[in-house]
Amino acid sequence: MLIIGGLLGAASAEASAEIPRLANGKPDFNGVWERPYVPDMSRSGRDQQGPGTLPFTAWGEQSFKNYDVTKFDYTGHCLPQGLTRSMNSPFPVEIFQTAKRLAILYEAWNVFHVIPTDGRGHPKDADPTWMGNSIGTWDGDTLVVDTAGFNDRTNLDTAGHPHSDQLHVVERFTRSDQKHIHYEITIDDPRVYTKPWKNTRVFTLRPDWEILEYSCEENNKDLTEGHIK
Questions:
Q1: Which pTM value belongs to this model?
Q2: CA distances from 160 to 14, 80, 82 (A)
Q3: Core vs surface per residue 68-87: b (16+ CB within 10 A) or e
């Protein structure tokens, strides 16, 4: 048993040593990453694992039942997707990382999100925003991104799962090897869900890709032809 444990420990250490790192020794997430499309965070699919049935509060369940994309969809009006729907989109992201901050550039909607990793906390009485306020800390080789301070004008996903301004999101980015990131997102919103729940995914490094220009306003037939209101 000791021998097996030693072998497993050596294998783990070898895999960790092969992960690209910055000069400060932290895992290097720089690059363009392919991600699975996650239109419904409750379900599982290729390179993603959802929790299944979500633990709605009575208010949250009714809010979800009342959602009707044909009556109004904010993304159809080219308003910001919000943090979770930006992470759910099928388009790639590019990550830029330094010792004190990490920025995610989303091809979808051509938006960006900056995450300080310099030890600061959340600001007091921050104005609620579409993407929320994020801070990053390290748990070993895992980057933990804590985000709060959301407005309540977005949904979690295309399926319409709701959230309130009490939403708290924790993302965990782990460079599992040279080509992949293991990504875990935890949703905590006591007004909508009775307990926190998770969705996990795998991102793949694509050095042969670049993020492209994206314009929601161009040829927006869903809106101009009246498919949505």
A1: 0.90
A2: 43, 15, 13
A3: ebeeebbbbeeebbbbbbbb
